[in-house]
Structures are given as structure tokens and as C-alpha cells.
Amino acid sequence: MRVVIYVVLYLLTSVSLSHGADSLMTLKRSCNSGVAKSCTELGKVYDKGKDVEQNLKMALKFYKKACVLGDTTGCTLTGLMHYYGRGTEKNDTKAEEYFKKACEGKGVKGCFMWAVLYLKEPSKEPAQKEEVLNRVRAFLKDRCGKKAREACFFAGGIERRVKNFKEAAQLYQKACNMGHASGCSTLGYLYASGSGVEKEPSVAIELFEKGCKMDDASGCFNLGLMRIEKKAGREDYSRSVEPFRKSCELGMARGCFNLGVIYSLGRGVEQDHTMAKSFFERACTLRDAEGCFNAGLMYLEGKEFDVPKAMGLLKRACAMGHKKGCEAYGKLKEEGLSD
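and the corresponding C-alpha cells:
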């Protein structure tokens, strides 16, 4: 097993909610009476499972209702559910439809995602793509000029996707200066890779630290990567553990996976297979196929030997396209074992 490096440049949504039973009933009454934003908030409650059991289908239902009632955030979140296949089948066509509707309502995030999907669509003519790109670019830059930090961040995202890294860096810098956590983290990635700016690892680390302090999962994750050191010919992760832990707590699967590897190997921490397994399972819960695979293998050895649990995890890894997970699950089935 090894630490797998990924860089997450774009956080689609970050929701931190706390609703008691009374607040939940208030939201439901408000949504039922036609208050769009209450429907969006209700969707977030079910989406994140705060004070209720997580129910993605219910979340999607309320996001859609909010969109119908005219809330652009509801439209964007509905698009994201279709885009990622959460609470429904993955469907880029439906996702694009909702993102476009959000954009028409001046939703910054919706406009960005509409452009991203539109540019990927092979059936669209280059002239059509250019028209949409310029339309979204102009809107985001106009909003950025009016001190809308999220618009600066997504405007940077548009420029990065068309490989205009220099302008992307300038826009991310504006977003970061206005306190946009992901703007700082993404700018850090540009400094780490030397894209549009001179490569400066020390500046990258400062930006990742800034993003992480503002609870940006990608900032914490990338900070963990930058803190990996070489000692006696092998990698030492002692200074990476806490940033990876925070990224995991913030919902980044790769942060959880890397912690699983670190505890499994005992690099920078005391070796602890129970801890390793718990982090791999957490990564699996966050839809990381390798996390499912590694957790599954660990249930086939040691004190917590559990074949049904192992098979369930390997089956899940297989369902996410993990070839070795499919092979391992298939071999166990051939041996007459069941999950």
C-alpha cells in the first residue's frame, strides 16, 4: 500500500449545519409555504444527515423544489446531485439543465458548472462553446470586480480550464485576499506546480496553511503532501499526519486514505492496524474505491477477521470500478463464501 497523491482544486459545496427538531419543523413549514431558501436548507439537512438520518433522495427532492421556487442555490445543488449521481443516477444532461437554470438566475457556482459541462460536450460546435465561455467569463469577472470573492474563485477556475494560468493565478489571488479558503489553496497549487507563476514551494505551503486554517479540505490535504520529508532513505509522514487528519474530518476521502496508509506502515506514527482500518473505512464511506479495497483486505486478517464484512467492502470497491476489488471479491465467491 502507498500514499496516493491527488490534488483537489475545487470544492463544490461546504455545508455546516446544526438543526434541532424544532428548527427542522420550522424549515418544513416554511418550505411547504413556498419559501425557496427554506427548501434549500432542508435539502442540506437531509444531504448531510444533520439531526436526521441522511437521505439523499429527500435532499434532492427539496433542492428541486427550491429550484422550482426560484432559488439559484437549489438549482445548483440539484445539478450537483445529478452530476455526481447522489440520490439519483448520474446524468450530465440533467445536471447541465439545472446548472444553466442557476446561471440564468445569476448563480455564480451554477454558471461555472454550466460552462464546465458545456465545454466538455462533444456535440457542441466550437463557436457555441466559445459563446458560452465568453458569456460565463464576462459574468464571473464582472461579479469579481464587485468584490464577490466566490466569483473571483470560479472565474479563476474558468481560466485554469482553458490553460490561461497567469490570469487564473491573479483571480485566485483576489479571491484569497478576500478570504476565500479554496482560492488560497488553489493558488497554492499553482505555486507548487509553477503554473502561471514562478514555482515557489515555500509560498505554496503558506497558502495551503492559510486555506487549511479556514477549513478548506484541499488546503489541508496539500499541506500534508508538502510536509512529507525524506529521512534515512524513506518517506517520513510525522508532520503530515495532522493536516491529513483535518482534511479527512472535512470530508476528503484521500486524506482518510493516506492516514490509513500511514498507520498501516507506521510512518511518523506508531503502527496501528485498527486505526488504519478505521481510516480506510472512512475513505470508503466517502466513495474512495481503494479505501474500500484496503479495508476489505484488512478484514481478512488479524483479530477482527470478518469475511462478510470484507466481502461487502470488496464488493463496494468493485462497484466503483476497482479491478483488484472485483478480482478479490470474485475469488471469495468462488470459494463458496457469501456476504
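(Above: one complete record from the training split.) Residues 15 and 50 are 10 Å apart (CA to CA).
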